[in-house]
Design brief:
Largest sheet: 2 strands, antiparallel
Helix content: 55-70%
Radius of gyration: 25 Å
Strand order of the largest sheet: 1-2
Length: 337
């Protein structure tokens, strides 16, 4: 059985056993990339069109939007519940049983929708929604720092090459060689009278940018010798114009996908640092801090442990599923490797 060579312009037929030839697989990959970068389709338009076809991803997107709205509207939601996150309700706990919540399931009632904290009687609903605000604020702000820094460094290293590439690549290697969690704990432990949210955002962002920079550098290396980039260079376009008009749109798809995958990691990092006691400090609520405090009551009041854990789990799961879907759509080759 004969096949037409791929460079002859004819169709590439499958092998006798029905499996596609390597040339056919490569052609299919090129067609997928061509669809992903079709003219007139921005990464956001492509993502919106493809995400609408996946029911599971639509559910994840709805959960993500719900958490974002909950974080934005935390003060109003807390007021709707009738309690502030720092307000004690001694009538909701039993002082003769070590401050255990009165009633079933951790004191869940019409007055306290998710129950109350043991000993203090603080409303869990108010603390959970305000904890979402803190966790998502740190996650989004740290992700913005990571993406902006990593994208700028990756484009500069890939486009200019030479000494610029060598210096930035060595800086990426140096940053990635640090045991980031240990350094985060050490830096947050020695800082005392500072804004913990700003400090955590800066420290998390400091160690996260090299991953984005490596992805962007690889994409930039593949784009800077394309015909349209060479044409712009020959036409007298400045480096800044080429970077912003030709290179940046070409790397935006993988960057968007990588950004969505970064957010659940940032949420988990903030929760882990707060759990270890070096993150957000009381009375500011945080999911990781609430889980740490609930460990002492997991036998007598398991709902105190379950509620913040479920919220943290759902947030990380929803962002992860959404990020995986965006990676498959916007960076198909990255998803295959």
């Amino acid at each position: 059985m004969t096949t037409t060579a791929p460079d002859a312009g004819g169709p590439t037929l499958p092998t006798p056993d029905g499996a596609p030839t390597p040339a056919a697989r490569e052609e299919a990959a090129r067609e997928g990339d061509a669809r992903a970068t079709a003219p007139g389709s921005s990464p956001w338009q492509l993502a919106r069109r493809e995400l609408g076809r996946r029911p599971a991803v639509r559910v994840s997107l709805c959960v993500v939007l719900l958490f974002v709205l909950m974080a934005v509207a935390a003060p109003w939601l807390g007021a709707l519940g009738g309690w502030s996150p720092d307000e004690f309700d001694k009538t909701a706990i039993d002082p003769y049983l070590g401050g255990q919540p009165l009633g079933s399931f951790g004191g869940i009632s019409a007055e306290h929708w998710l129950g109350v904290e043991p000993v203090t009687g603080r409303d869990l609903f108010a603390r959970v929604v305000h904890g979402a605000q803190v966790s998502l604020l740190i996650a989004f702000a740290a992700t913005a720092i990571v993406v902006l820094t990593g994208t700028a460094a990756g484009i500069a290293a890939g486009y200019f090459g030479g000494r610029v590439d060598a210096a930035l690549s060595r800086l990426m290697d140096l940053t990635m060689s640090f045991p980031s969690l240990i350094f985060m704990i050490a830096m947050l432990s020695v800082a005392k009278d500072v804004n913990r949210i700003v400090l955590m955002t800066a420290v998390i962002g400091l160690f996260g940018w090299p991953g984005v920079a490596r992805v962007v550098r690889g994409q930039t290396l593949s784009l800077k010798h394309r015909e349209y980039v060479d044409a712009a260079r020959v036409g007298g376009a400045t480096s800044w114009r080429i970077l912003t008009r030709d290179i940046l749109p070409g790397v935006s798809g993988p960057v968007i996908a990588y950004t969505t995958l970064l957010i659940p990691g940032m949420i988990s990092t903030e929760a882990a640092l707060s759990y270890l006691g070096v993150g957000v400090r009381p009375p500011t609520p945080s999911w990781g801090q609430m889980i740490a405090e609930s460990v002492a009551f997991y036998e007598t009041d398991p709902m105190y442990f379950v509620i913040p854990s479920v919220f943290l789990f759902l947030a990380v799961l929803a962002f992860t599923l959404l990020g995986d879907a965006l990676r498959d759509i916007l960076d198909p080759r990255g998803g295959r490797t």
